[in-house]
Amino acid sequence: NQNQKLYVIGEEIDPRTEKLARYLRQKGIDIYCIEINFHELDGHRVVDKREIVVEDNAPVRKSQAPRTEEDHLAKGESGISELYSLLKTKVLEFGNDITVNPVQNYIGFVRHGKNFLWVKIRKEFMTLGLQVQDSFDDPKNMASQYRKDKENLKRVVFKEKDELEDIMYLVKQAYDTI
């Protein structure tokens, strides 16, 4: 959410935390460090606040990550665009209930409101993420586990045109899962 802010509040902000906050701010995280100290003044408890990482003159950089298919494809070499086009055409043949949803880090293929396939474009290959069932069949061992804590997420590297048929077998299983 672009309207969220992160605050680090403490009696003392150590230099290491301040340095990390400045780094995160440069990377586009809207983060602030605030030191708060309490003291007595005329019998009342008073709070002194000192903002450490603010930098109003250096606005938070909003992410410039790709958001269209064309932006994603520009990251790869020309052969990757051809592979993606073949993949997309074959995937869309599964049914008319698929939408292509490019977001910041990947191109999602959505069915019933859920990604069953997501594609990350790299310079010389694509990484495909698949949402699958326990009965997932991978006869050529092309898929690896995407995350250690998620058994049903698989990753497949797609580099060569001759892998398309085998990859489509895996993608179809993901499509049928959703």
Task: Characterise this structure.
With 178 residues, the chain is an alpha+beta fold. 26% of the residues lie in helices and 36% in strands. The protein is elongated and about 80 Å long. The chain has 2 domains: 48 residues, no CATH class; 109 residues, Aspartate Aminotransferase, domain 1 (Alpha-Beta Complex), CATH 3.90.1150.20. Strand 2 and strand 3 form a beta hairpin.
Short characterization:
The chain is of the alpha+beta class and 178 residues long.
Please describe the topology of this protein:
Elements: E1 6-10, H1 15-26, E2 31-41, E3 44-53, H2 69-73, H3 78-92, E4 98-102, E5 107-111, E6 114-121, E7 126-131, E8 143-147, E9 150-158, H4 164-177
Parallel strand pairs: 1-2
Antiparallel strand pairs: 2-3, 4-5, 5-6, 6-7, 7-9, 8-9
CATH topology of the largest domain: Aspartate Aminotransferase, domain 1
Strand order of the largest sheet: 4-5-6-7-9-8
CATH class of the largest domain, named Alpha Beta
* CATH evolutionary superfamily of the largest domain: Transcription regulator MotA, C-terminal domain
Q: Quaternary state, please? A: single chain
Low-confidence blocks of residues: none
Considering DSSP H and I runs of 4 or more, what fraction of the residues is helical?
A: 25-40%
Domain count: the total is 2
What is the H-and-E element order?
EHEEHHEEEEEEH
Structural class: alpha+beta
List the total number of helices.
Answer: 4
**Beta-strand proportion:** 35-45%
Query: What is the radius of gyration computed over CA atoms, rounded to a whole number of angstroms?
Result: 24 Å
